[in-house]
Amino acid sequence: MSRVTHRSRSRSLRRAGWRILSLAVVLLSSAARAGDWKTLVMPGPVIAGHAKIEADCASCHQALRAEAQRELCVDCHKAVGADLESQRGYHGRLTDVDRVACRDCHTEHKGREADVLGLDRDAFDHRKTDFSLRGAHASLTCERCHAAGQRFSEAASACIGCHRDDDPHRQGLGEACGDCHQETSWNRARFEHAATAFPLKGSHAQVQCAACHVNERYKKTPTSCASCHGIDDSHRGRLGAACGDCHDSVSWKKTRFDHGSKTRFPLTGAHRELACRSCHRQDAFDEKLPLECGTCHRLDDDHRGRNGPRCGDCHTSQSWKSSRFQHDRKTRFPLRGLHGEVRCDACHKGTLGKERISMNCYSCHRADDAHEGQEGRDCAGCHDERGWADQVSFDHGLTKFPLLGLHALVSCEDCHRSQRFADADPNCSSCHATDDHHETRLGDDCGRCHVPNSWRVWSFDHDTQTSFSLHGAHEGLACRACHSEPTRGRVQQSRRCETCHTEDDVHRGSFGRSCGQCHVDTSWRELRSMR
Known about the structure:
By secondary structure, this protein is an all-alpha fold. 21% of the residues lie in helices and 3% in strands. The strands form two sheets. It has a two-stranded antiparallel ribbon. A two-stranded antiparallel sheet has the order 3-4. It has a domain of 38 residues.
């Protein structure tokens, strides 16, 4: 484009602008004369809510100060101004709210029916308000909380505003429903009972509120155990109202009373399983119970008081039938073998501590002595505690009749026909009468010839064991040739010749009875030399 053409066009535009400006001045002058010039510059009618101030532009506008419009809006809409000041509500929570003008969102002069709010309910983010929609609230329609003809900001934000009819407590717990209930469900409660003077522990945590708070009574609710558990008190009030001293909240049947540390009688063994009323039949705090066993166990005392009242010296709390008395350590008579199974009163028949019991076997076992006193009273010399007839030990070698040879294999009963052992005859003939081929012609002391190893083995030296040596013809004679008559005890046989040779004496005694003066023992017919 040429420079001339450009200048020509610029002059044309300036001339057109002056003509428009001149026309505007004429119009304004006419409107001013008519008194309605503001109507000429107003973009359009305001909404019905602002219709009363439509004629007074100064209510919303200030000449030459566009930023003053925000201040004028807040002066009129004081609730919005309060939200902006405290940064609450929808307007107070807007991002960069200080740099946003009201007209940026709320456009006016669009007519009486214009939507100056510009609210899109489907896209509105309720999190930008003071009441975020959570839980069951998120599925509600707007009309459930925002009534028709009511400003949105006037909707109740306290639970009681909507749930007054749902409150079964009838405002007995105040209006802060959110302290207990949740948005997910009205029936779910999250009340922190621990913040009260009565924390819910153990089984109490599972109890329904109405179980303690009858008829929605919450103030001055009794906290003593007896107020709820009076009907559960098996003691019927005898132990007082401080149930928590013994019972806990986990289980009414379990007790935590430390009888060992709080009394002088620890509950051990079977005592631990007893019910309190077994001993405490009156008020436990006033009753003074004796601690002696006999107080409760008098009927169980088989000794009938003979052993005194201190049952605990022998018996334990585990079982009345078991005894812990150390007889081996505390007495001079250890209980061994079968003695350990004997009842106390088998020996102790008098009063304990006063009686004097003999430790001699015979004092208890006199009736058991089959020997009838023949073996003395020291039964332990043969018997022991394992059994009266079990493994009897006796050294027969210490008696007058040691068991040698085959005698050691013979049973006791072969010689001892009864338990009166002293009655046994020590003579051989008492047992071997049928074995005596000499028919007692050699006496009854078989041991002079025979030995215990065998009846057939014998040894007898007539020359050394008697005063009559066997020489000559005497040497080959049979025993019975001289010993022809039965005899008892020591053998008494005459050494005179005529005892055996009377029939051989042809002299018929005329030369006397000393046959050996003439005759020799080799032959009766052989005479001694008479030189």
